[in-house]
Structure formats: structure tokens, C-alpha cells
Amino acid sequence: MLDHRPRRDLRPRLEGLRRAAARLDAATPGRRDRAVDALRAAAILGVVLGHWMVTALVPDGGTLRAASPLQHMPWLAPLSWVFQTLAVFFLVSGRVATRGHASARARGLSYGRWLAARLSRLYRPVAAVLTLWTAATALLVLTGADFVTVHTLVKLALSPLWFLLVLTASTAATPLLARLHPLWPLAVVLHVDLLRLGLGAPSWVGWINVAAGWLVPYTLGAAWARGELEGRRTGWILLIGGTAATVLLVTSAGYPASMVGVPGAPVSNLDPPTLAAVTFGLAQCGLALLLRGPLRRAMRRQVAWAAVALVNLSAMTIFLWHQTALMATTATGLLAGRLPGLHTAPDDPHWILARLAWLPVFALALAVCWAAFRRHERAETLPGRFRVVRGHRPRDRTGAAGARRV
Asked: Environment class of residue 305 by beta-carbon count within 10 Å: exposed (0-12), middle (13-18) or buried (19+)?
């Protein structure tokens, strides 16, 4: 029997999206290096997908406990190599901050005003997260929730904030770091690991690497801003050298193969960062530098650039709320019982397939969070951003009337 019900024509909507992408493309200054935005978007999405794939909340009686498939299936370690992309983010951040500070000085803007503007872009979305989770924690405690459950949820929700503290310190020190050679913080990481893992120094010594470890890609980004990494040779040296060093450290020096923390493991490559995590990050930075050309060509496509721009304009919102989206989905799913891939123990390959099926649901929950809290992250909140002014069209690719650098 024929269905004579009218079908909604999606062509006008698609055409509207294409026109919006064309306007965004036209409003972007021609001097903008779109590969930088593409790398930042990839780094953010890599972290989000990584957390969604290796973090499980398993009910244990009246308690929710965090678990990881890497704990039960060590052969999944390569998964962490794909999604542990923080080094790329620090590489891009070092480049953007160095260029931004140099531009501010050229315009006569004081260091204090430049730093205040930079930090407000980072911390404006944080207030919403802290407010919601303060209220949620109080509600959980007042209703008698299990302490382990409360601790697990709050730790997951607020864990992204450590990253902001390191980025804040690095940004504040940009004038000093702008000409620091990456070998200096790399040497610090090497000596800290020798003391901690080789000579039995107290474990707290390792926390020096929280700063030193991420300064390596950050100062590489500063070197990129100075024009010192433009050739492909540097990219190949970092990729090959970093990969070889990481393989050697994992196979011969006893470093874990996973580049993220694994519950119960005696040593974590990320908490705090180890020499293996840093050399792996160097390999990632080398790959990122080699991909600049292909990414610039890909970003000439208006739809691709619009998608990257959207992620960048909401980068902090996505980063800060992705764990909340995971937990909200898990809590809501409990109403239907123990669901595979959501509440079951991550101890066999079937869990991986089931978890992959949940990724679109997590993305939908994150989209709800984005819609609710994106106003805390305005279009001009990220470094070098543009703001499209409605009702105006750009005069040309290099001096857009509808775009303003901030």
C-alpha cells in the first residue's frame, strides 16, 4: 500500500546550512592558518572520545565504581595512542599564546590586559560546571548517596580542571617561555623519572613533571610561532625520534604501554606524565606538523571549515561537559536496568562493541549540555577567534568587514 503522507523536504535546510558555511568561510580572514584550528578540534575530540571509550561506571550494589577496559584487556593499549591527544593541544596553545602575546605588544596592549583576556576565555565556562556540580554534590550527600559514588562522580566531572590549571600557568609564563628550548623541560622530565623510578625518590617528585612534561609541546608551539618549525624535516625528526624513543622505553625500560592511566597499575604514564608520555607526545607533535599542508587544503572546503570552527568556538564547553554527559547517560540508563556497554564490567570484547553503540547517545547528551551552557563561551572567547556580525558581508578575504580579530 502506497504511503501518500507528505515527506519533509530537507533540501532547503541543507541549502541553508551550506549558505551559513559559505558566510563563515567568507568572514574568516585570509591570513588565518586554518590547520591550527583543525588540530585543536582534533585534539579536543580525541580527548572526549578517549574518555568515553575507557571510562565505565559499573554499579556494585548501591555504589557506582569507575572501571576501565584497559585494566581487563591490556591489548587495547593502542586505543590510548589514538585518543591521548593532549600534546597536540599544548602544541597549538603554545603557538597561539606566543603569537597572541607578540601581537598584543605590537598593539601596545599591556601584559596584564592580555593575560586577563586570555584567562577569561578559559575560565568563563568553568563557573557553570562548578555551580552545577556543587549543587549536585550537596543534593547527593543530603539524600544519603554512597560516599564512593559521590567521590567517583565528582572526580570524573571535575577531572578536566587539572588541565586548565597547567594551561593557565603556561599561558601566564608565555613571555618567559617564548624562547625556551623544548630540550630544557625534556631534560627535567628525564631527571625526574630517573630519580623517581630509577633511584627510588619519593613519589611526589613525579609531580614536577605535570609542569615540565606539558611544557615540552608548549615550547614547541612557541618555536612554531617563531617560524622555526616550518620545514617538514622537523616534523619527520619528531615523529620518528619520538616513536623510536617511546617504543624503547616501553619495551626495555618498563614503562606502561598505555598512554593513559589504568586503575590498579603501579605506574601511570599520565598521572603524572612520564618520559614515555612526553616522547609519545613529541611523535604526535611531529605528525601534527606534517599534517599542516593536507589540513590547510581540507579546510578550504566550506562545510569542513564550518564544522571545525563550530568545535573551536565551543571547545571549552565540549571539554568541560563531556564527562557530565557520560554520567547523565549512565544514570538515566539505570532506570532500564543494567545495560550492556553502559553498566556492565568492561572485561571482554563485547563490551567494546556495545560501548561504540553508546557513543551517539553520549554525543546527544553532550549536545544538550552544549545548548544549555554555550552562552558561557561566546564566539570571541578563544584565541585569534573571529566574530561574524549579522547583516554585514566581508569586503574581501583579507579584510573581512564581517569579522574582527580579538
From this structure: buried
